[in-house]
Amino acid sequence: MGLYVFKLPDVGEGTTEAEIVAWHVRVGDTVKQEQNLVDVMTDKATVEMTSPVAGRIVALHGELGEKAPVGAPLVELEVEGAGNVAAGGKTVPVPAPTKAPVAPVAEKKEPAANEKSLASPAVRQRAQAMGIDLGSVPGTGPEGRVTHADLDAFVAGGASPPSVVRDGVEDVKVIGLRRKIAEKMQESKRRIPHYTYVEEIDMTELEALRAQLNAARRADQPKLNVLPFLILALVRALSEFPQINALYDDEAGVVHRHREVHVGIATQTENGLLVPVVRNAERRDLWDAAAEIARLAAAARDNKTTKDELTGSTITITSLGALGGIVTTPVINRPEVAIIGPNAIVERPMVQGGTIAVRRMMNLSSSFDHRVVDGYDAAQFIQRIKALLEHPATLGSAPIPTEPPQISRIPQ
């Protein structure tokens, strides 16, 4: 028998370290070649580290949330043959981990049933709140992973969660994507003076058009929601307000105004909020924009988006869909200077020409970087979007040509 030390490889793009976000094995486990050992995160890309050999886990290095440098040992395995240990029993030199290795799990201690079951942190938290033992829930996800739907089916099948006393405090370490979101939101609110503007929009005509287009769409065309219409309106309004389709380098005092419109679509996933980017929205028609939104949303929820698909936006749309509420105060996706947030569409009585009519109304919430965008310009910009959405015939479908980007300097 020999010892094989698996070290964090170079995952490319100049990465020098990666954060450990999920362990998939324990000390004492027997693993196969190519079996997933650990997930690590660089920027917003999560990478699965698989075992290059078959063997038994004898040591794990690094805790969740810890950043390991490239070349640091992650897993030690007992393998058939010599392994990758030098003659005389000396381990191949590797950089030391940034913290002490995780203590091996005692052989006598059996993990709780909830710990044995494969499930996401959100599913575990929900099962714990419901008092359900995950070990008794059949999992239908990959490798028997328990999903939210499995919990619903378990309860619907007559299983009654035991009565539990809820007390105490649970400490949840902020790691991985959740930590990156927290850091980015904190930096955005700390550095950007947000100016929020809300306007109500009569969506009655657009909703009628959307229903008609969905009823007549081809089998290969996606079902339309409000977002592709909003993107078309956004593109046309931005051509009149170029200072809003911009990135602000506040350290250099330079605003980079972009002619190309790359729209970030804030997407809630099981792992947290991601912002995949619809690139060159100005070149897309309604159906093309809808197809790209659907593709990116599916990739984000399946954790298959690439780094390129998650970077480069020039303005962001954030929507809670049916949970859109009355009004929101969206946080700008720094270094962008604006973010748009459609709220829920609801039927409300409105006065038209002296009579009351039921109309489908939607509030449009927005936030702007007040260092770059004046309140008057922000209001005019949203009013322009309002006019386009209330008269959808003016949206058109032809792409808008691009021009070279502009750069303006903010006086210091």
Please describe what this structure looks like.
It contains eight helices and 18 strands. The protein is α+β, with helices and mostly antiparallel strands. Strand 12 and strand 13 (272-274) form a beta hairpin. Helix 6 (226-238) crosses helix 8 (375-390). The model is unreliable at 87-111 and 397-404 (pLDDT under 50).
Query: Spans with pLDDT under 50 lasting ≥5 residues?
Result: 87-111, 397-404
Reported CATH architecture of the largest domain: 2-Layer Sandwich
Distance between the termini: 67 Å
CATH class of the largest domain equals: Alpha Beta
> How many distinct helices?
8
Main beta-sheet annotation: 7 strands, mixed
Number of strands: 18
Strand fraction equals 25-35%
Question: What's the order of the H and E elements?
Answer: EEEEEEEEHHHHEHHEEEEEHEEEHE
CATH H-tier superfamily of the largest domain: Chloramphenicol acetyltransferase-like domain
Structural class: alpha+beta
Rounded mean pLDDT score: 85
The total domain count is: 3
What's the helical proportion of residues? 10-25%
Shape: globular
Which secondary structure elements does this structure contain, and how are they paired or packed?
Layout: E1 2-7, E2 17-23, E3 30-31, E4 36-42, E5 45-50, E6 55-60, E7 67-69, E8 73-79, H1 113-116, H2 121-130, H3 148-156, H4 176-191, E9 194-202, H5 204-216, H6 226-238, E10 246-249, E11 254-257, E12 263-269, E13 272-274, E14 277-278, H7 286-301, E15 315-318, E16 338-352, E17 355-369, H8 375-390, E18 406-409
Parallel strand pairs: 12-15, 15-16
Antiparallel strand pairs: 1-8, 2-4, 2-7, 3-6, 4-5, 6-8, 9-17, 10-11, 11-18, 12-13, 12-14, 16-17
Helix pairs in contact: 6-7, 6-8
